[in-house]
Design goal:
Rossmann fold, six-stranded parallel β-sheet, seven-stranded parallel β-sheet, 15 helices
Length: 386
């Protein structure tokens, strides 16, 4: 029986992986192993490993790594701690294949340790571009440390091949998040409001803002600019999802908490909403604002506009419902006016999601089951003919 080890370190990543994890778990030819790490184990980020367990999964190993500091020094040391922890986990679990998603620094630690343990890695969402964050370099590094690749668009498949990966190991499957939307039973508006303890009303926004990690000390000013604009939208109720454990993330987190304390009658913040509540909120809000990948990948499927602020997601393929703006007050204000306009609202309803493809989970599962692991560790650089 092939042992497939899925590694997850954040609420968002788990929300994307959960359907695939369930498919692996239910397949009699496979044995699911789970390693939870980073934000899942932190009280500050909601102890979201409990959500994994509540969904009926067994966590085989927990890799503690997150320091209280969100400085560059603290982040670097967290990667070192994670590498040590993953070494111990692999020593005990001895997986046949590791599955990872995305571009987080804990995943870089996971695949680095796997390299020395000669464990093949299957990577989801490679080939993508986010020029404003160090995640961009991490993602490409993970690609070079991986052996099977599942991309969300055909263009991203070509980019992974451009990085020297053999086309026979690179599969265009679409985005798991889109399939999750179709397979998740969403809450009614009343049930969602009761669960959140918050009234959406007729006009509401979902806001997620993360640090732009390749810029130096811009988090505070850029977040303040966004909050200045949001403070003027007095007829809109606002749901904030707090930032990830990135360098300077605590600065943004505190600014949002301060905003909510001042505007408590029309705003609320969550460290983690969970997959069902988050997707349900997207069904009812007027627009999504911030710089999260979800605003580009998942939100277009709900027929509402996204305002993507700044350079964090620069270079990522986006649907027509995604609007981009700079990070100054005037640029954000103009961007917000655009996505709230009747024209943008109507156009978003007709958008086609670039990341949608049929049978995403099934196609990934088939490769995980059937692709030969013999000599998979050894890779030859694939040269593209001029």
């Amino acid at each position: 029986m092939r042992k497939i080890c899925v590694i997850t370190g954040s609420r968002a990543e788990y929300g994307l992986l959960s359907g695939l994890m369930a498919a692996i778990k239910s397949d009699y030819e496979l044995h699911l192993q789970i390693i939870a790490t980073n934000m899942h184990l932190s009280p500050e980020f909601g102890l979201t490993y409990k959500e994994i367990e509540q969904d009926g999964f067994v966590i085989d190993k927990k890799v503690e790594m997150l320091l209280s500091s969100d400085t560059s020094n603290g982040t670097t040391k967290s990667v070192g701690l994670a590498t040590i922890g993953f070494a111990d986990a692999y020593e005990d679990l001895k997986p046949d294949l590791i599955v990872v998603l995305g571009d987080r620094y804990e995943i870089l630690a996971a695949v680095t340790a796997a390299l020395f343990y000669k464990i093949p890695v299957a990577h989801l969402h490679g080939g993508e571009i986010t020029e404003g964050a160090y995640d961009d370099s991490i993602r490409h590094a993970i690609t070079k440390l991986s052996h099977l690749h599942f991309t969300s668009t055909a263009a991203y498949r070509q980019r992974v091949i451009q990085l020297g990966e053999n086309p026979e190991r690179v599969f265009y499957v679409g985005a798991l998040g889109i399939e999750n939307i179709k397979n998740t039973k969403l809450l009614s508006k009343a049930d969602l409001e009761e669960s959140l303890g918050f009234t959406l009303g007729d006009k509401s926004l979902l806001v997620t803002y993360h640090p732009v990690t390749l810029e130096k000390e811009t988090a505070k000013q850029q977040c303040e600019n966004l909050l200045t604009v949001l403070a003027e939208l007095t007829d809109y109720n606002i749901i904030f999802t707090l930032p990830n454990s990135d360098t300077d993330g605590s600065v943004i987190m505190q600014l949002i908490k301060d905003f909510v304390s001042i505007h408590k009658e029309r705003s609320v913040a969550f460290a983690s909403m969970g997959k069902v509540r988050y997707l349900s909120a997207l069904k009812y809000v007027t627009a999504v604002i911030g710089n999260s990948s979800s605003g580009i990948i998942e939100v277009p499927s709900f027929g509402i506009p996204t305002l993507n602020i700044g350079d964090r997601q620069k270079g990522r393929i986006a649907a027509t419902s995604v609007n981009h703006c700079g990070s100054s007050i005037n640029e954000i204000k103009s961007g917000v006016e655009l996505v709230l306009s009747e024209k943008s609202q109507q156009e978003a309803k007709k958008t086609v999601n670039t990341y949608q493809k049929e049978n995403t989970t099934a196609n990934i599962l088939n490769v995980l089951k059937d692709f030969s692991l013999d000599n998979l560790i050894q890779k030859s650089f694939y040269n593209i003919e001029a």
